[in-house]
Amino acid sequence: MKIAVIGGGPAGLFFASLMKRHDPAHDVRVIERDPEGATYGWGVVLSDVALNFVKDVDPALHVALTEGQVVFDRMRIVHRGEEVILENNTFYRMARLDLLRALQRHCRASGVTIEFERRVTDLAAVAGFDLVVAADGANSSVRGLLQEHFGPSLDVRPNWLAWYGTTRRFDPLSLVFRQNADGLLIAHAYTYSPTLSTFLVETDPDTFARAGLAAMSEAESLRYCERVFADDLAGEPLRSNKSQWFRYAIVRNRNWFHGNVVLLGDALRTGHPSIGSGTRLAMQDSIALFRAFERCGDDVPAALAEFERTRRPGSDGLQAAAVKSTEWYETVQTKLDLAPVAFAYDYMRRTGRVSHEDLRKRDPALVAAYEALPPAAGG
Predict the structure, then answer these.
(1) pTM
(2) CA angle 281, 315, 329 (to 5 degrees)
(3) CA separation (Å) from 243 to 67, 186, 201, 220?
(4) How many CA atoms does the CB half-sphere of 322 hold within 13 Å?
(5) Could you read off the pLDDT of 344-375 as tens digits, one per residue?
(6) Domain annotation for the chain: domains and CATH numbers
């Protein structure tokens, strides 16, 4: 087959390498609009569950992604100035650019062609391909060209986010809730390299307005966040990488494919940073689409139908969990009176997918501390 993958993110690169390694006779091309080496994020986290999916289908890539990585098994929530440690939450962390480079090397080693700085503005650019995979992100241009067929919907959430980095290390993945005269700001922070951490700041619309963040420059917003989280940053600066405030859109599509064009990753459906599911969803999509072609051979219509049939239930379930997590952050003002342990317990159960007994097995110390609280402190 002749396969065009539009978008050089994790979903597109992983699918391209799987298809080429499965059948070297395939002509597989990845078309990426940005220059090689460009990335506009900081670090990414992948759970051990997510990487086990990779290990099952591509052991060599699993080794490339995990070799030398420091694995952290704890989370940390700071509420009312007190920290609560959450055990048995295993995550691998890496720079987004390192993840992309590992996938690019994997593609090239298998014979995939990667074309950088090439923007697809119409489908004539991919005429003649047997399969076109639109893995070009949440603002997918390919999806836009065929929107009447895919039927996309974008649910723009109310909270504002800004994606910073910092030289301050946050070895346990940390969620820090800080209140000031303007309202509540939340930091999602984690170390992803020996010298850098991701530091994502989130705030509600009222706090955003009272603080005047909409009128601030990028540098002014950064300095404001440094002041809010001064105790947590311990004198280390925040860093910007086009760190503008944005509101996250939950992307859904009525149809997953049209003709020989199929959506993948964020172009198909987004998770949310609050649950860290975006890269996991993207790479599981890649595996599911690849498995569909394993079962159906080169029958593109059959494989695309099989992909949607087998992947949609799990994908919808993870997205629903991401939406519940998002809603927890959007309504967290109602929970600020909870004692720190009760607050952490509520956080761990926010998606509805973790029961009290599930949590007892994962983190018995947290559940014991929660059960020991007086009723008023437990909410």
Answers:
(1) 0.92
(2) 75
(3) 30, 16, 10, 11
(4) 26
(5) 999 999 998 999 999 999 999 999 999 999 98
(6) 2-39+96-154+251-329 (3.50.50.60), 160-239 (3.30.9.20), 337-378 (no CATH)
